[in-house]
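Question thread 4412

I'm putting together a teaching handout and wanted feedback from people who do this every day. The idea is simple: show students a protein as raw sequence, then show them the structure tokens that encode its fold, then repeat with a second protein so they can compare. Below is the first pair exactly as I plan to print it.
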Amino acid sequence: MNLATSLRGQRLRVSAAAIALSTLVCATSAWAQDTAVAPATAPETAPKEDNTIVVTGTLFRRANTETPSPVTVLTTDYLNKAGISNVSDAIRSISADGAGSIGTGFQSGFSAGGSAVSLRGLGVSSTLVLVDGLRSANFPINDDGHNAYVDLNSIPFSLVDKIEVLKDGASATYGADAIGGVVNIKLKKQFVGLEGKAEGGLASRGDAAHQRISLTAGFGNYEEQGFNVYVNGEYQHDGRVSNASRGFPYNTTDLSSIGGIDKNTADSAMTTASPTAYVTRVAQTDLNNPLSGGTALLNPANASQYTALGLGNCTSGTFTASNGTGCKYDLVNQYRQIQPLQERYSANGRISFRVSDTIEGYVTGSYSHSYVSIWGTPQVIRNTQPFGAAPSVASSNPGIVLPVYICASGVNCATAANRTLNPNNPYAAAYAANPSQGAARIYYMFGDIASGSDRSNDVYRATAGLHGRIADAWDWRVDGVYAYDKLKLVQHGFINIAALTQAINTGSYNFVNPSLNSDAVRQALAPDKTTPSHSETYALDASVTRKLFTLPGGDLQLAVGGQIRHEMLENNNQNVALDTYSLTTASAFGSHTVSAAFFELDAPVFKQLEVNASGRFDHYSEGFSRFSPKFGFKFTPTKAIALRGTYSQGFRAPTFAESGPRSQYAGFVSSTPPCAYILAHGGTGNTTTCSANGNPYNTTYNLGRGVVGNPNLQPETSRSFTFGTIVQPVRWFSLTVDYYNVKKSNLIVTGPDIGKAVSAYFASSNLDAAKAAVAAVGPGYSVNTVDAVDPLYPNLLPRPLIINVPYVNANYMVTSGIDLSATANLRLTDKIRWTSRIEGTYLLTSNLHTATGIQSYAGTFGPYDLSSGNGSPRLRGNWQNTLEFGEAFSLSLTTSYVGRIKEVATDQGSLSTDCSQNLYGTGDAFCYVSPFITNDLTASMKFGNGGVFSLMVKNAFDARAPIAPAAYSSAPNFLTSWHYAGLIGREYRASVSFKM
């Protein structure tokens, strides 16, 4: 069977499964919540409490979770049966998680190594993450250079009691950032005894090693003794997975064997940077400066234009092109990794105490460490200048050269007394008498210098609170939180600008045989760059609630409260001296104090009708204020059916990266020149479908957007509403359906017309016309940096490398969809119980309304500029089926589904979603990424008094990630947000836990 036939078969199987899933797809139902939220791991000695709880999104205790707002609850029992072992995977499995979701597998973004959720696809900045109802410090590096979020990797998993996901706006309760929804991770309140778990596993390919251990110990019967103390620790390690280990198509950008495009020019073009150096003779206008190479090629017409240095060192064969012979490389296969090395550990503790019969208190402390080690492709010798540096330091424009002469000092070598001919320059001897005409322009990748980063993130967090009651009338609470997030980022392999000049002029670096270079030479050329950054949050919350009087349906309750919160960020510039090629200059600084007052009123008007109203006023020290109201209702005409709905307004305050006057960044997105440009530069095909034809200048490259903070920005605002039904015709089955609609206005965007600016640039005939065309797009748009000219077509328009764009409040976005859920809980026999829970989200619309038209994202790769550019799948869902055989044995199958995605993105220039706008450039071919289904199987057996042994097979049927050729070049042909399990493949895990 060939690959194409196999792929067609997989599509048929996936489509059939999708049809089956779509008939049941849902989000956790209200009845399921009442059944599932009771923590299966609660200790037998836990204190007895009443059956009231506080559900995320309300200030009141209530007897059930059937609030007017849709809430999904993930219990530890559900997560264990799904084989999930960290908070990131748990939360990102929610079907409401959409575009902009960040997984640890996305390693090339600004905040690589962090993980975040993006509810409703509105971005990580529009999702509020709480721990026990309180905020935490944001990850010190902003996603996409400006989006703020809490790193999910920093939250201890073994202490999780349950995770509640509120899927509508909640600014009226929690303030800023809750536009898309709220994730509240609830940790254990008390624990008595000793509990531990050990887990290990391996992928079927022999890698992706996984180890995890946790231990919790506690004492003090709170019910009888009035106190409880527990401590907890956990450790997790996950090994690397290379692209090479997963084979085609995840280890190459050459899809020509299945009818795609060959974007791997490292095995066919001598102007592609690779570990073999290629040189061609050019002029050198300043013999003391390697950055002053000329544009025109000076080789004789009857000689090859390019010469390979060290051609005899080729390990994968050679290729012959019209301009010379070179070594074959597939750089993705040789250097890239799918999963980084990850290590996490944490220590946590809590003291709960009763001050009196009416006052209770608690104190918690936690420390978590998350380490991520990323390997990347080695750095190259031709680079643009760092963002903010002078164009004169660019090594790509017109091109860095090896001089004819070298000397010990590296200064004025052409006239130095101790000068020698440059052994790295094959033209040196012939042009010893005329060194200005014998320079060797070089294309090279430092394959002997490992490139990557180590990211250590330490989060310190402490909370304390007192809760009590006054005269059986007023319930009050005061809670405080302090969180400090410290990040240490160590970058490896980035080339120092001055050191490169020195190494070239002294000849200390061997380009002919790089294996002979000493570690000292490599370290001097690419010293490690260490950058510390940190963020801090502290807040004090206080509220009181009171039952005012009794209505026909129950007690009318009122809650009022206030908050004061301080936040700060110091995200330091990794390249503050502008002395290193390719290293980002993104930075963000700021601090503010927020004061807020809020209220909530809950009125059970009748037994059949509950009405809820709330509001919050927030004032920011920057000078702006915002009032956020919310209204909700729940109507239950019969026990079998209920209707519910909410309306709310919310806001997202500008992040420090967006508004800080000292903040800046240059973000890069994979871009492919339009076909007309490719054809002009030697490509083949037509204006709709074209190929680079071996010219690397025509292939996908990184196009930057340069932007600085704008202190005049105003908050984003939102309007959202939900309407749904809860149906429970029989006790063992329930169903919910909720429609949501969110409008986010006054969006804070970076260059909303960047696509128009790029199109205007490429449509121009020369550089001056291109600069004028980009400037005509609007204020703040300009050409910052252009590439060196195409060596094969030096008289044509060069590519743009960075286009300046403004931060502005502009446009509005509307997203809508349907959440569905169903739960069945049947006792098949006296000893066999079957539980089936299914949840899913169907995205109806996701539209950005701009001055030039509507950008439609639903079911496409749009918004491509957001985070990992993994798009907005229309349908996501999860279905868990469990058979329990008495009390001793259970078998669970958890199925996850992601619908197909069209490889177009209307934020990339064209508002059309037709396949003619395929980002891959092949029209109808490869226009869709196929649906994806994975199945995780878990078998658990109880033993002794509290022991559990489990065997898990993740991705049991070894489903492969569907091919996504338009994905970012850093993740060739796959989508890390949705298809990660299909990259790792089948995994085997085993765990044993005990409790006593």
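The second pair follows. I'd like the answer to focus on this one:
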Amino acid sequence: MTIAPSQTVKAILGPTNTGKTYFAIERMLSYPTGMIGLPLRLLAREVYARVVERVGEGAVALVTGEERIIPAKPRYWVATVEAMPMDIHVDCVVVDEIQTAVDFDRGHIFTDRILKARGFYETLLLGSWTMAGVVRKLLPHAQIIERPRFSQLTYAGSKKISRQPARSAIVAFSSRQVYAIAELIRRERGGAAVVMGALSPRTRNAQVELYQNGDVDFLVATDAIGMGLNLDIHHVAFADDTKFDGRQSRPLTPSELGQIAGRAGRHKRNGTFGVTGGTEGFDEELVVQLETHDFEPVKVLQWRNSVLDFSSIERLRRSLEVAPTDKVLTRVPVATDQLALEFLSRNEAANYARGHEAVKLLWECCQTPDYQGISPAAHGEIITRIFTDLRRYGAANEDWIAEQVRFCDNSEGDIDTLSNRIKQIRTWTFVANRKNWLADPSHWREKTRDIEDRLSDALHERLTQRFVDRRTSVLLRHLKDKRMVSPEINERGEVRLEGHLLGTLEGFRFTLARADGEVDVKGIRAAADQAVAPEISNRADRLAGAPNEEFVLATDGRLRWRGDIVAELAEGDTLYRPRIIMLADETLTGPDLERVQDRLSLWLRHHINTTLEQVMSLEAPADIEGSARGIAYRLYEHLGLLPRAEVADEVKALDQDVRGKLRKLGIKFGAYHIYLPLSLKPAPRELALILFALKNGGIRQPGVTDIPHIVLSGRTSFLVDPEVDTRLYEIAGFKVAGKRAVRVDILERLADIIRPLIAIDPSRYQGELPNGAAEGNGFRVTVEMTSLLGCSGEDFASILSSLGYRLRRTPKVAAPVEAVAATDAAVLEDAASAEAPAVEAAVEDAPVTAEPAAEAAPEAVATEEVAPTEEVAAPAAVASADAAAAQAEPEFDEIWFPGGRRQNEQRRHEPRRRDGANADAPARERRNDRQRPKGATRPEGATRPEGNERPKNARPANTRPKAEEGRGRPEKTERNDRRPPQREERKVAFDPDSPFAALAALRGKKD
């Protein structure tokens, strides 16, 4: 670039809105060639478009870090200050916003252009009047021209964000603040455009256009609007007066505040500025400075040596650290490119940086901007890869570039995601616009440009969707002009005004489609209420004449009409008469409200009377008197389901005729409950739950809305929730038994399965025993039982235990091990046959529950079983059997017995023999027949008669005749000492509907 005499340099200085940029463009276009350097890529794009309109596209070039549009013979160059081509000779050079020379990151670039960028005939330096002093010192012969502001700027004080005047720009200094303010403006005032430095130029242009064309009246921005953006702003409000400059959070200087506040007022229109969002008001001295544009002059500019030594990396580093000779200049702090150089000098890249050209290329690579704001090490890795590829292959690896670019090529995601992708693609756009860095640079320029444009458009769309509410903007304008048109209400209850959704009308309640806000939204609400009032009146008429099928009572206790919630139930004076609370706006009043309430009350009474018809009939049944009437009323009070234990005495006192009358009313007398089977269906139980909950804990308590779904699922049992009131399970038709809740009718079916099993006498039963039958009034759990209840194991055991059954667990006898030799097998077979009676006797007399006077422990039984085997078994066979027994896991035979029976007591249901004298023989004589001494066997040839009965007049060899019983007792063995004395059998009167009554009936049939 030509170094012109200082007399051709002009500094056009002054505050904002002085027309400096417009004047400079006109001067540049008056020359055959020219160049203008601008501080922002966004502003460069704006100026490029303006110049193209004047001289044509073929005469203008655009050069930025991420974009190059260079026609065949350009006459005018528009560029960012960093990208200005310094080796091109032009007639006029313009450098805009020269006060940026004080910036720590970019200041040294502007300082270099102030000192070295010259046009052949004219050089224009544009900036703030604060630069006048340093320009005079650095360029003594430069002409300084001051331009006054076209309009006045005045301080307007503090106002809330929601009360800012239209055409305002609200300024914050972080993306979080900007988004929060924009969201508030959207809710309160219809929407806002967003402008931040982090946005791509395309996105910022689209947002600016949104504001300029009047779609929104507010702009929320960072200090990015302080440079060069010509916007129609009437007022600037500072939501913050501090910013993070990359190193620390600091207050804005008065000149920085003036640069931003000066955007208020355009050309001849005056502007105002103020504070908002909790920012303290400006003091009087600062206000005067801002209104008069009188700021402290700039005294020092950032500077870095631009005459660099590329002979080696070390010499390059030393040349960058050269100190300035002028006191007006100060060496810039270590910049991003210097940090990258330090990183590359310590890794493998240093090996490729040999010679002038290699070191120069290394420095060009280090000047790649860190758009992503990542760590110096991560940014250094990218530069290292690019430089090493350039040195080894002559171009960056396209597969690697393609992979990085492909990662960015995704326009899905939220605002932050898209913003990060734009930052990433800007890095590769910069790389694609470098000379000779890629094998096919034109392809990658188009590719990266296309991706950035699509990401920018998607980001603009997301910003608009999030921060612009066109509907609210339209509504507010209508309210202010008092031209509210009649809204449209569709069948879904959506209320629309001029195509915009105002809210929804559900039942008799109107809900705005946006969150409640301040005064303007209250006005919308008032207008909307007036608009929907006729529709609410029409709905009241339709509900008053609606058939019963249109009403539904949900599990949450709310009444719905045609799917809309119109009322909810509350506790009433009686269980079956809850109160109705209307859910309606104040628009529903007077006669309309009364007619709606009367219709809902009528339907609710009908619903309760029909759904719980059987239960309601028990309140005062005809032809039922005395205790039976009391039982019926108790069922009525308990919603058709009553535990039998609560009225056990009254039920026992009922004769069969009275029971028959109660059964005609639908009442069933179960083993555990007295209930109405028809009322156990899902609909009656759901209604019963609601009525019960209204009186006991409220409809919102846990379980009220969940249990009906379980009832509908058809599950027979399920684990109980400890947070749920157990009474709710009972009302729903389930009994809490142990860990689970079991359906009442299923519990009765379980009792029907168990009842015949405990009534069977295996010793007298003809044919194959039913599955689950066991000796001594016991039963074993079967698959039929567990399948019926839908559980097994400990859960099933907890149910039986809670029903009063008791468990007896007896060790099972291990099967004899099959020996290899035939003789061993025969010996084991004989031993097993000899062992069987002893084991059988031990199992029969084993205790059912642990008692203080329990029978012999399992260890003792095992000792009796092994003794005879040792006498006859071969030593090898015994050792084999012992080894197998040691390895086998213990197994138990589990038998359940009705509660209250002694585990070692004889079966009371065993029928007495009617054949002569032995018919009255005491049971003790039959028991003594099995009391042989240990190791004794039955005499050879002696067998028990069929049916396990002894022959008539037979007496066991080891007992005395009946006539001798009175003269003394035989010596008691250890087992006889613990046996309780024999008692005479008594006839017990059982409840006719209990399981024991059925047991007695079976005994009578056998007798």
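Top answer:
Good format. For the second protein you could add a caption like this: The chain is about 40% helix and 15% strand. The first helix runs from residue 20 to 29.
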